[in-house]
Amino acid sequence: MALSMTGFSFREADTEQGILLLEFRSLNNRYLELQVKLDESLRSFEPMIRDVISAEIKRGKVDCRIYFKSKSNALDVKNVDPDKLKQLANSVNEIGKHFLHIQPINPLDILKTSEIMHDQSLDINLLEQDLKKNLKEALIEIQASKAREGEKLQKILLDKLKEIEILAGEAKKILPTLIKEYQSKIENKFKEALIAIDEDRLKQEFLIFMQKMDIDEELNRLSSHIDEVRRLLKIDGQIGKKLDFMMQELNREANTLGSKSISPKTSQISVDLKVLIEQMREQIQNIE
After folding, report:
1. Cα–Cα distance measured from residue 278 to residue 284, given in angstroms and rounded to the nearest whole number
2. pLDDT (tens digit, 9 = 90+) per residue, 183-231?
3. What is the C-alpha separation between 138 and 117, in angstroms, rounded?
């Protein structure tokens, strides 16, 4: 199944120590370009985060943002240490003795003071476990998003392949007609010039014409390349670069058809083929 390089996922996880917010955005890019933005409390995990992401995503411009809001910093009266609060109150009273006018203290401002809170330092090992777990789940979500987009791209490419096959079939069908038309044209030229038709000369003309018009090899290779593209679209893994190479091969055959053309019909088929191949190439730029 083809994977698009375009995807998005957002995950909010309520863990024992705090809330993790993970956001992924992915766009098409020739190689893997990974940008990671983390809270200061998560900086030490950056190498691990990069390893986990690069193990799953091989191509694309990936923007990863992870935020962590610790519960130890929450404005919760349960976190207040009574002894520290009493010490703070005594200190405020002592300071107040030296001033005539003192504004009342806002209790919310006191709650924001970390000095009165219980010591709730983070358990780094537990935080790493929570981060790994949610990071992997976020990656599953973005891969699912990319798979949905890839399914749409796959359908577009398969439809274009059918159109290419139809054009190749048309080119094969009109060859007998072109040969008959050319035969009549040569015979008429001989008659107009009042020259007896020389069978050897006629055979020579036809030999030159057939060599120029022989596109069976190109059509066979075109069919083979179409089969290979279909095969690639059915397999898992990174197929974008292989598909891009196959577009080069298809385009080469279309160009050869155009160079061998002696008819407006086959010239138009060559042009139409190249337009379809270019449309496919544009879509393939989004495939991982």
Report:
1. 10
2. 666 666 656 655 555 566 656 655 555 555 567 788 889 999 999 999 9
3. 33
Residue 122: partners with Cβ closer than 8 Å, 6 or more residues away = 17, 41, 70, 72
CATH topology of domain 7-73+123-147: Ribosomal Protein S5; domain 2 (3.30.230)
pLDDT at 175: 73
H or E segment and range at residue 35: strand 32-38
- Tokens 């089969």, located at residue: 227
> Domain limits of the chain?
7-73+123-147, 81-116, 149-284
| List of residues 6+ apart from 114 with CB closer than 8 A | 73
CATH architecture designation of domain 149-284: Up-down Bundle (1.20)
All residue ranges of the chain with pLDDT < 50 are: 74-75, 116-119
Q: Which backbone phi and psi does 194 adopt, to 5 degrees?
A: 55, 40
- Bridge partners, residue 27, by sequence: 61
pLDDT score at 95: 73
Alpha carbon distance 33, 64 (integer Å): 11
Does pTM top 0.90 for this prediction? Answer: no
Q: What is the pLDDT of residue 123?
A: 85
Strands across the sheet containing 18-27:
7-14, 18-27, 60-70, 32-38
User: Do 158 and 177 meet the contact criterion of CB atoms below 8 Å apart?
Assistant: no
